[in-house]
Amino acid sequence: MPTYTAPVKDMQFLLQDVLRVTETGVPGYEDLDASFTSAVLDEAGKVASEVLAPLNAVGDAQGCVLENGVVRTPEGFKAAFEAMKEGGWTALDCDPEYGGQGLPYLMGTAVGEIFVSANMAFNMYQGLTHGAYSAIHAHGTDDQKATYLPKMVSCEWTGTMNLTEPHCGTDLGLLRTKAEPQADGSYKITGQKIFISAGEHDMAENIIHLVLAKAPGGGEGTKGISLFIVPKFMVKEDGSLGDRNAVSVGKIEEKMGIHGNATCVLNYDGATGFLLGELHKGMRAMFTMMNEARLGVGLQGYAVAEAAYQNAVAYSKDRLQGRDVTGAKNPAGAADPLIVHPDIRRSLMDQKSFVEGARALTFWGASLIDRHHRQNDAAADGLVGLLTPVIKGFQTDKGFEMAVQAQQVYGGHGYIEEQGMSQFVRDARIAMIYEGANGVQALDLVGRKLAADGGKHVMAFFEMVKAECKAHEGDARMAPFTEALKAASKQMQAAGMFFMQNGMKNPNAALAGSYDFMHLMGHVCLGLMWTRMAKAAHDALDAGAADKAFYETKIATGRYYMARQLPACAAHLARIESGADPVMALAAEAF
Amino acid sequence: MPTYTAPVKDMQFLLQDVLRVTETGVPGYEDLDASFTSAVLDEAGKVASEVLAPLNAVGDAQGCVLENGVVRTPEGFKAAFEAMKEGGWTALDCDPEYGGQGLPYLMGTAVGEIFVSANMAFNMYQGLTHGAYSAIHAHGTDDQKATYLPKMVSCEWTGTMNLTEPHCGTDLGLLRTKAEPQADGSYKITGQKIFISAGEHDMAENIIHLVLAKAPGGGEGTKGISLFIVPKFMVKEDGSLGDRNAVSVGKIEEKMGIHGNATCVLNYDGATGFLLGELHKGMRAMFTMMNEARLGVGLQGYAVAEAAYQNAVAYSKDRLQGRDVTGAKNPAGAADPLIVHPDIRRSLMDQKSFVEGARALTFWGASLIDRHHRQNDAAADGLVGLLTPVIKGFQTDKGFEMAVQAQQVYGGHGYIEEQGMSQFVRDARIAMIYEGANGVQALDLVGRKLAADGGKHVMAFFEMVKAECKAHEGDARMAPFTEALKAASKQMQAAGMFFMQNGMKNPNAALAGSYDFMHLMGHVCLGLMWTRMAKAAHDALDAGAADKAFYETKIATGRYYMARQLPACAAHLARIESGADPVMALAAEAF
């Protein structure tokens, strides 16, 4: 069975050496020194290793069971959820006004990674709650906040997001769930929602559903949509729970993975709902949280890959098979461990260099969100808006691919469920789909984010890359990083130029290359991250850091990424520059 | 639930227009005219669509059950197996001397694709039997052949291959199963074998296990290994069944996919076995069938992708979501079908151009095996030996990737087991692992096949590519094909050169690039196939073929492959040329 150890040292390297958080001036970051953050991360790591990771396989094997309208979570989940509440983990980066601990989003992200790596399906219960919390926090009335937030911060009540219906996922303009205004100011909500993660379960007293529905008078398509709070149990004036609301579970889905999370069909039969935010502006309210939600899914991509990687490493050191072609490494044994073989190394380096690069990008993204929220930094907001589809789309594609590679290290044993590697692959698969399928992320990136605010944010990104390269001019040690980054960044610029020149005449010329652009930009982003990490590692070594091996490993891992992953950029550019013709050549009937 | 229709027209295009089988002079190919082959393929397609495909999801959901040492296959499997036997499908390309129909291996391959697409797990029962049949046919005594082959041709008895043990998969030199010679010339086989596909089930009267074991006196490692026939029930002189042999099922594995096939732990407790082929030359005997076995797995890679693709196409035409950015295509409806969106097209074209290219490569490989067996053509044997690791490794990697893409077209619905897309992904995953994990295929390709016979076969391959390009010089219609193919082939040559120049000093310099080389060569092979297919399509159009749209679609699909997939070759070359240093930089403890 897989095990998991939180990569606290790698996280600290990012926080202290690369982001240098305490020096940034972001309000709240002044507390994030090495000793405080270590205490938090170590403790989270302990909970993850001892409580959550052992339940991961249990959740997968048992799944959730629906009986008489009640969903039973897998054995041990309820106790683990209690432990999470008691440890205060659910309140970490929530508003102190409602019982939160007020830590920056960046710390929530670091701790979140640890919990997701240990048990992705379990962590979704609080992850969804956090999303609903954020929506109410941003758009709720004072009354609504006072009523719901304290209980959601503590996870005594959990939350859900209700968007999808059977006939509409991406295209929410098609949704049919109705909201009829009542005399008392509430609404009657009627309709069916599907794919509702954590939609029903036995771990909380109440569940607060946030539901997109159409109220009269809003017009066609997405314009008519409003967002509603629909509690499972009505909340009385005094805060105690009242009647059961008219929302029920139709069924729970049999899925490829994340079995420990209940994915529900929810039927709203005239359920009582309360408008959240402005009438007919529900899409806007829902998407205020989009960057965070998508960053959270991008995190799942590499967090699951991290857990899979750790186990692949252990297996490759343990399993004896074949001999090192350059001479036996374990002559006393019957064979050498797998890790001596160059192709196993290639696989482990692919995994390691991706995971660490993606963690850097995600942490950077989280710090930009903090800058936006805590310093009202519009440039940071624009930049993270640009990065979000890349963090979500690229990292979940690659995270899945790396989980598959980790499984492959096990050979035939990786295919046996008992080993747990299959679960990583099956769990990681959903992150490419939900919170906007990755094709939709690519569309968002190329169709919207590149041109947003007159292209300001992508220009700022290119300037940032340029400045990074310039800063290391003349430093021969950094040349392998800056040269590869420069070349990749130029390829990304060329792709952007191609879209500009051709997309006006024919939008398909840009959209046919959107997926490749998302990946091209993903590699440039990770190239930028590795350049920064290499610089920070060299600086630490120059300053006489005690753990030389750690920093040297960082540099070698970065060099691998630059040498072995950035060449993909040229291939993506070539695909992009082939334009729409090869993609759109066939009539639909020809497929 | 997924459906499947055999792509008979695409197959006929390969047989009649591209391979032009009846003109080749290969004995037996003279019968493979369009009318005969259509009759066979149509009939196979009917069985596949009506009998096998509907059982695919059943097999996945029910799996196999072990009770009191007996394995129960999923509902309907037994009746379907009877139908396969009665239809003569198990005997198609077997030797007429033992009841086979004597058709070329190429026809067995085409029919095999159809059955695998419809139900991969089910088809393994007869696939494994065919492998065991081939081994006995090649190495058995006349007595052994007479005893076992007729029943195996008819699949009244099925077969298995027993290689893996708990502590050894790839490294068979480590195996511990013992064979003790008996006075009567038989052997007592003792040991444990794992991952034995179709190792026990309820669809045949007897199961003929082929088992690798060590008999005394053979020396260390693989040299001491011999191959044995171990029947589940002993066969009496008159051919009737006698006592149960001392082989039993320890357990059946819970796997990620191919649930319909029983993957068994088999315990041999002094079971009676009979030497097959020469003593201590078991590895050689086993690997006589290696090209066929690996080609069969490479076929699974694209065959499952074909089935997944067909369903992705249907879904993309049916599901209404969003609008074509260039103008509504379904203005009367609430939205346009998914297939209008460029990124969905990109995905479908990736899938389609891969599957059709891989089919061409596999059929070509099968025709080379026929040339070897029916014309004793050593060059064909050498060439297919070179192509085999590519067909197995590249096609199963890509086949899995394409099944994932097909699943992605379904959005959230693709993650729900009920839709069947998850099964394609889970089933396809095993093909990257068994019959030599893909990393081992890459090792075989770069470490063995490139240099085999003084590099003769790879040189012949390059010459073949060169000749193909030369043949179309001056044909502007073919330029998009030959130019891309030439460039990719040069990149492959450069990679080979890099291995030669660096691999001598340091074998790791070659092995660190082996996986990329396998993929680079895969693209060159499919580029060659698409060049041939485009030429054949142009020829058919020039000759006034009735179905213009079909041939034009072929050309457009090929152009997509050349424009959008061959650029990957440059990236693979860059990875290869970065050498062993980035890959091997870290000490094992640094992971």
Automatic annotation (TrEMBL), chains A, B:
GO terms for molecular function: flavin adenine dinucleotide binding; oxidoreductase activity, acting on the CH-CH group of donors. Keywords: FAD, Flavoprotein, Oxidoreductase. Its cofactor is FAD. Its EC number is 1.3.99.41. Residues 461-586 form the Acetyl-CoA dehydrogenase-like C-terminal domain. Signal peptide: none annotated. This is 3-methylmercaptopropionyl-CoA dehydrogenase.
